[in-house]
Amino acid sequence: REKFQSISAADFFYRNREIAGFDNPVRATYTIIRELVENSLDACEQYSIMPDVRVKLIDDGNSIYRIKVEDNGIGVPYEQVPYAFGQILFGSKYTLRQSRGIFGLGGKMAVLYGQITSHSTVKALSSTGGFEKYFYELSINVQENKPIIRKKEVTPNPGRWRGTIIEFSFEGDFVRAKPKIVEYFRQTAILMPYANIIYISPDGVLYRFDRITEVMPKPAEEVKPHPFGVDIEMVHRMINASRSTTLMDFLANNFHRVGVATAMNFLKSIKMSPDLNPKTMDSKDLVKLVSRMKDYGEFQPPDAQCLSPVGTDLLKAGIIREFSPEYVAVTQRRASAYAGYPFVIEAAIAYGGRVPITPADEMLVLRFANKIPLLYDLHSDVAMKVIKRINWQRYKLDVKTMPIAFFIHICATKVPYKTVGKEYIADRPEVEYEIEWALKTCARELKTHMGKKERAYIAQRR
Amino acid sequence: REKFQSISAADFFYRNREIAGFDNPVRATYTIIRELVENSLDACEQYSIMPDVRVKLIDDGNSIYRIKVEDNGIGVPYEQVPYAFGQILFGSKYTLRQSRGIFGLGGKMAVLYGQITSHSTVKALSSTGGFEKYFYELSINVQENKPIIRKKEVTPNPGRWRGTIIEFSFEGDFVRAKPKIVEYFRQTAILMPYANIIYISPDGVLYRFDRITEVMPKPAEEVKPHPFGVDIEMVHRMINASRSTTLMDFLANNFHRVGVATAMNFLKSIKMSPDLNPKTMDSKDLVKLVSRMKDYGEFQPPDAQCLSPVGTDLLKAGIIREFSPEYVAVTQRRASAYAGYPFVIEAAIAYGGRVPITPADEMLVLRFANKIPLLYDLHSDVAMKVIKRINWQRYKLDVKTMPIAFFIHICATKVPYKTVGKEYIADRPEVEYEIEWALKTCARELKTHMGKKERAYIAQRR
Ligand SMILES: Nc1ncnc2c1ncn2[C@@H]1O[C@H](COP(=O)(O)OP(=O)(O)OP(=O)(O)O)[C@@H](O)[C@H]1O
Ligand SMILES: Nc1ncnc2c1ncn2[C@@H]1O[C@H](COP(=O)(O)OP(=O)(O)OP(=O)(O)O)[C@@H](O)[C@H]1O
Ligand SMILES: [Mg+2]
Ligand SMILES: [Mg+2]
């Protein structure tokens, strides 16, 4: 009759790799570069290391390409390397703090794609800056979702080098992927004027983005879950992991911005005893606790210490380097939240200079999420939805005929991606609201500038 | 430093449930119904059982709903019930044959959502028609991705009942989900005029679709992989699982429509020895074998025995029942393939009768994939892309002012879904081509009918 089977997470993403952005060799070429670069940038920024990232893509013929990415990041600890690159759903970004990585999947999908299209192993060299550096050659055992260590070498690290070098081959299509790859690097550099990024393409072109500042944003710090962001499973796990013997103690020590006083008041308001042992709570009490947590209006909203926006100065500097605009209006909204997850919107509108005038029904919209440039599915994205409904005439901005570029960046502990391939952002009313106000703020500033410029011009002509 | 962690597949889909269609209570209400109904319909059709499916959604207050789905399908075997409903990435549809289910995820995500929003367990009663029926009450251990059996009961089954009843509670939003739910049932019934479907909504309305025929399409049969659809991982696994000691034998016994003669000719053409032991092949040979398999022009294309289209008669009957159109043109294309996966496109265009005239810039387009109605993301779907570029004027069809409905159904062993939530279909040139020709065939037929009608009208007026 029916043949039942369970499959590993690696097998699932192998069979359904188009869902993770590996639809075909063109898209795979782009996604592989993206995933590896994002890992390198996270490894630097999280530790306030000014990033030096070097990407080399070599054409080995027969549609086989070799990718090599080198960074000066924090490195991967010795025992973790095989899992970091060889086990799907493994990583260090399952925490409540902003980072590019979130799924524990991207780097491994890239390695897996190389393995299934060219039988390539992955070579990883890393050190956390200690006395030794270590080299691994790995494959992924897909059916069991575990790494296969082909080779392992520990060597002295006299220079105390710290960083990671990863290399493997895969079947790609560079020619068709090229425009998107170059665009990806350009846009990455806009948000990172403090990073040195080098990309050497198979056709021998060297793209270099040199740092123009040594100022970096403060890294994101991990926070505890916020009461508005919980569900029964989460609270259940927190109770099991906690040593608290009273509900009061449990609440005061496990939630973002909830201390003794807040916990007391909350429990009073829902008529639950502070001395109740959370581990012996019955199902009815657990359901009541969780659902009332979500509606309690007196909890402090989430704050932004778990986020790491670019900041208006750095964003401006990056835009100026790329577009030399006549004017750029930049803004950063205060932290907001959706479903208990804090987020911050940064936006900019640039005018003139090297900003191109786009064809009639197109617009130049650069979207970013946790500093990742989003280059696909613009029209499904929440940002476009907002842009389309703003009445730009009110700000004297004719998006059809003027050289205008829009920039929208969402920083969040949990970016509401619609897909595993991180292609675009789902609609959330709170996010839409913030994007709209950020863009209107920039539009107003630009209108003021255009007004001054016009009056100056008129004055000059007299 | 960095805290490394591995998470289970259940934990991954719990944390990222919006990626599976569980964004919010409205969408979850719809997705839960969809996933359970699709499981029931698969369980019937695969065994040529005329489906009797009954769905009841009860409002228990406080946004908590109880769902109960009952079918007369093949049932779930006793030992498999806990895993079928309690372990993510487990199922019987990991085979190369058309079915609604493909991921081994849907039913469990529904159960998981009920668990995390209402702490509900799932109650499942099933029998494969034997002497016993069995009842389980289960939860999912999310961190370890395994079922927790709360209760288990085996009782006699004197009536030899065969089928499955599944029930659990969840936090939903019926009012907002209602239009989509009703539409889902209507569209499901269009492709299944041989099914009895009953849906009882929380506001007490009974929706009934009674069977109008006892003819059913022949079920899909499992096939072996086609040479064009393989990659190195797949061939590697097949070699390990096979007992063949020669490459010739391996190829002749493991691939769809490849027998001894074809295998011989292929190996000759790529200059590989038929006597080579596949288990001792080196990496270079494996890569060569797989890449040459994909380009060998003499392999028979995949055939359609692994597919189970509706068929033009049944499709017409279903459309007539729903819309009583003045005319409906229906067509089924011959089997085609993309990347070695066979697929068949069925399409129809209905005119007049109860087909509404849609507002100026909208069109009535009903899309289906393996008989699943797709109700979201119309504008990202490949079907819409094709419809927009057809010049309907050539067929004298003014889609703006005429009451016209388009129907597109793709049957495939691997539907190229873009998302885990099965919302829309990715672009594939072969699929686009087939959809375009299917629609044009229907358009031509409709044009002929309109022409005859017009001449008859003119003749009558004289
Ligand atoms: N270049 C690197 N430097 C330091 N650590 C790295 C590097 N690349 C990967 N890692 C480590 O390996 C882990 C797994 O990376 P992977 O890309 O598979 O998942 P992720 O980045 O956590 O999430 P996502 O799937 O969203 O990218 C990371 O969490 C990180 O700890
Ligand atoms: N009503 C049912 N009758 C018979 N078998 C069922 C029923 N519901 C579920 N099953 C079994 O449980 C398995 C798991 O179902 P689940 O919905 O989780 O995954 P799937 O249907 O295989 O794939 P998908 O995630 O695409 O829906 C199915 O493959 C099927 O074997
Ligand atoms: Mg990553
Ligand atoms: Mg299913």
Protein traits:
12 helices, homodimer, eight-stranded mixed sheet, 462 residues, six-stranded mixed sheet, alpha+beta, binds adenosine-5'-triphosphate, 16 strands
Would you mind describing this structure in some detail?
The structure is a homodimer of 462-residue chains. Chain A is globular. Helices cover 34% and strands 23% of the residues of chain A. In chain A, the strands form two sheets. Chain A has an eight-stranded mixed beta sheet with strand order 7-6-5-8-3-2-9-10. In chain A, strands 11, 12, 13, 14, 15 and 16 form a six-stranded mixed beta sheet that branches. The longest helix of chain A is centred in the last third of the chain and has 33 residues, at 429-461. By secondary structure, the first copy, chain A, is α+β, with helices and mostly antiparallel strands. Chain A has twelve helices and 16 strands. The interface between A and B is large, with 59 and 59 residues. The site of one adenosine-5'-triphosphate has 22 residues of chain A, from helix 2 and helix 4.
